[in-house]
Amino acid sequence: MPHRTALPLTPEEADGLPLDIAAMRASARRLLVQDAEPISPEDLGILAVLLRDHIQQLIPEVEAATLGLPKDDIPLACALACVGEARMRLRLGAGDTAPVRLSVAVKLSRSVNALCDHLVNLGGDHT
Hints:
It is a single chain. This protein is mainly alpha-helical. It has a domain at about 40-125. It is about 65% helix and about 0% strand. The chain has five helices and no strands. The termini are far apart. About 25% of the residues are buried.
């Protein structure tokens, strides 16, 4: 019997819930660690959807954490550059071949990890 995977929350359901940075980092780590275990094509597709969802949740949080920073603040510039990169990666297609799908998922993982770093560094109070 195949196992079921929970669907991501709708924006309305997720509104007001705290972000789980540790879980987001764990999702990203599945592809970023040096000795990452191989992942099935089905699990890779599910993970890519989850990573895209994480990015969509993180972007507004990082942007909100930059509010009030001076315009010439270096952490502000770095965080906003990361947000721009993450938005670009959200526009990437799923990929036509297994290597391209893996490459896209790795890029999404890197964006999740970087956005989590910026959120924590900017003082976002998330667990």
